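Quick one:
INPUT:
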């Protein structure tokens, strides 16, 4: 690959540096990223479905190549009111020393929150498919003193996680962009440590935020897709006003 500040800035290989590399070849439908083009009122998704272009089955192939442009949307302070990043971090049950990957990290909206939660002994991976987003995250980490954060460019169809290397994977406002999600879930499961889990945060069918309803994914479908990847998945209760959370645990 949204996190909504985000909607897609994506996963990295453990132990690699944060320098950006060339964007990998782009397949026709695989897309991991946060948000879409459109008005800030719809969090970058476009009023009445405008600004989406063509959508292939199973994924939303948008590009988010201009980090400075999207930072105005993804990092708008007004987002804190409904995104509630502190509450999302509570759902992750992070502890000092853990490794957490923000898949579809975009401009790095969640990075400061994750960095604080895992502490100096922990590792935060900010992963995205857009080179400019990765550059932006690297600069954000450096200027913010987030020494435990590494930003990395990843492929559209692979989170790039070393086997059994991460405790948590956070995917905010991004799952509905990914094509071949069942196959992608298997790759996420392979990257998790035993007992680790993926947390998918995405828009409910009822909210007026997010993409047009025809492009949203019901939480029950996310449960099925994570389960197909070998994870034990369920919808969890959370206090988010416009989004649901699905957790998939590695058995």
């Amino acid at each position: 690959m949204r996190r909504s500040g985000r909607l897609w800035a994506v996963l990295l290989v453990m132990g690699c540096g944060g320098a950006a590399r060339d964007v990998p070849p782009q397949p026709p439908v695989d897309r991991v990223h946060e948000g879409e083009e459109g008005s800030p009122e719809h969090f970058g998704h476009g009023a009445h479905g405008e600004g989406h272009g063509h959508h292939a089955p199973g994924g939303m192939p948008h590009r988010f190549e201009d980090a400075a442009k999207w930072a105005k949307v993804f990092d708008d302070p007004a987002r804190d009111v409904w995104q509630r990043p502190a509450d999302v971090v509570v759902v992750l049950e992070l502890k000092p020393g853990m490794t957490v990957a923000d898949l579809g990290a975009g401009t790095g909206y969640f990075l400061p929150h994750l960095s604080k939660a895992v502490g100096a002994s922990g590792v935060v991976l900010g992963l995205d498919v857009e080179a400019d987003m990765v550059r932006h995250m690297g600069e954000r980490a450096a200027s913010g003193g987030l020494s435990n954060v590494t930003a990395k460019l990843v492929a559209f169809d692979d989170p790039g996680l070393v086997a059994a290397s991460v405790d948590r994977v956070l995917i905010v406002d991004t799952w509905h962009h990914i094509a071949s999600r069942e196959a992608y879930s298997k790759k996420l499961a392979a990257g998790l440590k035993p007992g680790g889990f993926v947390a998918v945060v995405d828009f409910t069918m009822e909210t007026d935020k997010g993409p047009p309803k025809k492009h949203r994914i019901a939480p029950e479908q996310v449960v099925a897709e994570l389960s197909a990847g070998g994870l034990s998945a369920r919808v969890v209760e959370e206090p988010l006003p416009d989004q649901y959370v699905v957790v998939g645990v590695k058995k």
